[in-house]
């Protein structure tokens, strides 16, 4: 792909280069100002930390108004970006699908209907919605009952054909499979709560009333799709150490360890094997509660006939609204669904290949050099993703010109803001510093991989785009080094008049919890 000298958002500013230079006298890449020289020395010192000995670091900082590079350490080096990959996926989704895009899940009927009897099949057709809760399937079942259907002589068909049947992303490691961040992807699925980790159940293990008895194990939502093998024990005292893990190739969840009498329940998110069947199970139970009997069996993966009559429908929140749980909580499942949805909408193929091709074409149009990077999935879980820091900064600079930028900017995690759906994965970082409430950035973490890419407004009002990628370190975490760099950028003052300010968008509302959904506790935020 042809690489532009400036990303699209900076093209017009090239015409006013003289004015930009006047704002920072003497500032050039070869002859930086004293303030820039000091900033570079500060970042160099941070990156000299012994935790990065033998590791790789790629850091780029650019003034988004002038295009001036304030710092560049190995900016062209391709490194594993982890969840910073979601910057490409989320911006492409907003541009190619639109902030108003919604996912629809509907119920259709084929066959003759007479006096509450449907002599035919009932179809549950998935539209890819990663936010479908058990309460939403219950509402669909209520619509079916209200439409007069009481008995279905045929089968319940779970139609997930909007996307392909490849459930796990390219290059994902086998040992991640049971964990919520690596859930299988289907066009028909269930999320257990308003974190919207589709394709998972929450397993709770509560202590029994007496020592020696097994804990009481329940799931959210209640479902017969998951079988529990309870090997744990309630003890009179001692430390609670419960392990909850799904066995490979099926839906048996093994609970081991111990929990003390009187302790709070231990809970964990567990992925299901074949989320289409999980959704069908939840919906079938809801139909039963509403007095609708299906006499036939549940069949997965068959398409809905075009002639089938509509009976019920549920539309998701808008894509603009979905950006908040997606980016704040770094939801991998949302990234992968959006990748397949992009492929489906643009080429008629709901596959990773089609989606990533379309994402690549979009980010190339913004000015990223796609010949110098590799994207393998939507979320960044694949370690074969390789993206240079300078390409992230090009994207960050360019998308400021997009009409949906304010929505996207507000959806990024915000440093030091304790509310989960405001601070997100940065909620406990950089508090009490000039970066708090200022840095809007995407985090990223895998073992030996860390990243932070986004925006910070400097002390003199310059909107800086930055990308920090750290790979191949052996210590537990290098997040504090990223934070030190971000704080240094927030305190940077070049001198002269401010060259760029960004209006602080309104803080997005925390998603509402539907009636009957329990969300009083939360899992630790991942990156």
UniProtKB/TrEMBL annotation:
SUPFAM superfamilies: beta-lactamase/transpeptidase-like
The entry's keywords: Carboxypeptidase, Hydrolase, Protease, Signal
Annotated signal sequence range: 1-22
GO molecular function: carboxypeptidase activity
PROSITE patterns named in the record: TAT (PS51318)
Record-linked InterPro entries: Beta-lactam/transpept-like, Peptidase_S13, TAT_signal
NCBIfam families, per database record: PBP4
Family: Belongs to the peptidase S13 family.
Protein name: D-alanyl-D-alanine carboxypeptidase
Organism: Micromonospora saelicesensis
């Amino acid at each position: 792909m042809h690489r532009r000298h400036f990303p699209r958002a900076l093209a017009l500013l090239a015409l006013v280069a003289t004015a930009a230079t006047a704002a920072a006298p003497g500032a050039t890449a070869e002859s930086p100002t004293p303030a820039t020289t000091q900033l570079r020395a500060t970042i160099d010192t941070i990156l000299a930390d012994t935790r990065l000995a033998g590791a790789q670091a790629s850091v780029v900082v650019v003034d988004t108004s002038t295009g001036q590079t304030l710092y560049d350490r190995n900016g062209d080096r391709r490194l594993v970006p982890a969840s910073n990959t979601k910057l490409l996926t989320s911006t492409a989704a907003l541009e190619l699908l639109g902030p108003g895009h919604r996912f629809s899940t509907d119920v259709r009927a084929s066959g003759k209907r007479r006096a509450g009897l449907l002599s035919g099949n009932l179809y549950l057709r998935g539209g890819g919605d990663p936010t479908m809760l058990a309460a939403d399937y219950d509402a669909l079942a209520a619509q079916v009952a209200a439409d007069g259907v009481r008995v279905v002589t045929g089968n319940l068909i779970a139609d997930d054909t909007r996307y392909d049947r490849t459930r796990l992303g390219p290059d994902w490691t086998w040992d991640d499979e049971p964990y919520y961040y690596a859930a299988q992807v289907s066009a028909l699925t269930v999320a257990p709560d308003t974190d919207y980790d589709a394709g998972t159940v929450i397993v709770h293990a509560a202590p029994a009333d007496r020592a020696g008895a097994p804990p009481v194990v329940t799931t959210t939502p209640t479902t017969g799709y998951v079988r529990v093998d309870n090997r744990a024990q309630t003890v009179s005292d001692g430390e609670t150490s419960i392990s909850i893990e799904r066995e490979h190739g099926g839906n048996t969840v093994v609970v081991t360890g111990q929990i003390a009498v009187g302790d709070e329940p231990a809970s964990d998110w567990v992925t299901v094997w074949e989320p289409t069947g999980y959704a069908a199970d939840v919906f079938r139970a809801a139909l039963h509660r509403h007095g609708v009997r299906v006499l036939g069996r549940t069949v997965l993966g068959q398409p809905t006939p075009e002639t089938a009559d509509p009976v019920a429908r549920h539309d998701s929140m808008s894509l603009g609204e979905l950006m908040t749980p997606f980016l704040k909580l770094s939801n991998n499942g949302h990234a992968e669904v959006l990748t397949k949805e992009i492929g489906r909408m643009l080429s008629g193929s709901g596959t990773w290949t089609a989606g990533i091709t379309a994402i690549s074409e979009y980010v190339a149009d913004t000015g990223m050099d796609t010949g110098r990077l590799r994207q393998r999935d939507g979320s960044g879980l694949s370690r074969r993703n390789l993206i240079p820091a300078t390409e992230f900064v090009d994207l960050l600079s360019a998308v400021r010109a997009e009409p949906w930028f304010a929505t996207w900017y507000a959806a990024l995690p915000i440093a030091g803001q304790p509310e989960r759906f405001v601070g997100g994965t940065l909620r406990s970082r950089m508090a009490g510093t000039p970066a708090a409430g200022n840095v809007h950035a995407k985090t990223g973490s895998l073992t030996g991989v860390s990243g932070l890419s986004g925006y910070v407004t400097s002390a003199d009002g310059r909107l800086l785009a930055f990308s920090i990628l750290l790979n191949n370190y052996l210590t537990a975490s290098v997040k504090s080094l990223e934070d030190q760099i971000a704080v240094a950028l927030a305190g940077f003052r070049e001198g002269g008049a401010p060259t760029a300010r960004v209006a602080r968008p309104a803080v997005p509302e925390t998603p509402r919890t539907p009636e009957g959904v329990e969300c009083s506790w939360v899992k630790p935020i991942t990156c």
